[in-house]
Write a structure and sequence with these properties.
single chain, about 200 residues, alpha/beta, 2 helices, about 10% helix
Length: about 200
């Protein structure tokens, strides 16, 4: 398909549009529930989320470009259940090992590195210059933020946000629904959901 709908008229969506261009899409439009937004740069906003279900599912690919993991998950799951073609977008300047598995709806930004043996779930964001080292298991709807890094053999649970510039050392398990603050360093397993900040990272 040459047509893509991006759910979420935001800066993140604008980055997705640029990746989509580099992946060969020729017609890119946005969907957003804020009806005051009529365009994102050169791209038109053509309806709200509910309007999506009036579009022909055979005509458009779709990706959810919303940062909030809970909202992103809810929207993507509904699209999948309605048999829409949810796609992943991978920047051509990302470095991804040949055996990496990437779930649908995931975005991998410029300069990101995903090393051998890793699995990335559905609806994830591997942001600009982030790195996921070997043998990681990254759950669904996880965000590895700009310049954040996970070392080898790390597991990150669903809906977790690893903040900008944060680091997770090797052999760490992080449960679901965790927020790791900017610049934090995770040096031991996180077994309780919540927000963690600092060096070393502690729950607040």
């Amino acid at each position: 398909m040459n047509k893509l709908l991006i759910i979420g008229a935001s800066g993140h969506g604008k980055v997705l549009a640029d990746i989509a261009l580099k992946n060969g899409y020729r017609e890119i439009s946005f969907i957003d529930d804020d009806t005051s937004i009529t365009a994102v740069g050169e791209y038109a906003v053509i309806g709200t989320f509910e309007n999506v279900f009036g579009f022909d599912s055979d005509e458009y690919d779709i990706i959810v470009g919303i940062g909030n993991a809970v909202v992103r998950a809810r929207m993507q799951k509904r699209l999948e259940e309605s048999n829409y073609n949810v796609v992943s977008l991978i920047h051509p300047n990302a470095v991804i090992a040949h055996d990496v598995k990437i779930g649908i709806g995931t975005a991998v930004m410029a300069g990101a590195v995903i090393n051998s043996g890793s699995t990335i779930g559905r609806g994830c964001i591997i942001n600009t210059s982030a790195s996921v080292d070997h043998d990681n298991i990254i759950g669904d709807f996880v965000h590895i933020s700009v310049a954040a890094h996970t070392a080898g053999t790390v597991t990150v649970g669903d809906n977790t946000w690893v903040g900008i510039g944060a680091t997770v050392i090797n052999n760490i398990n992080i449960t679901r629904d965790v927020m790791i603050g900017a610049g934090a360093v995770v040096v031991k397993d996180i077994i309780e959901s919540g927000t963690y900040i600092g060096v070393p990272a502690v729950k607040i």
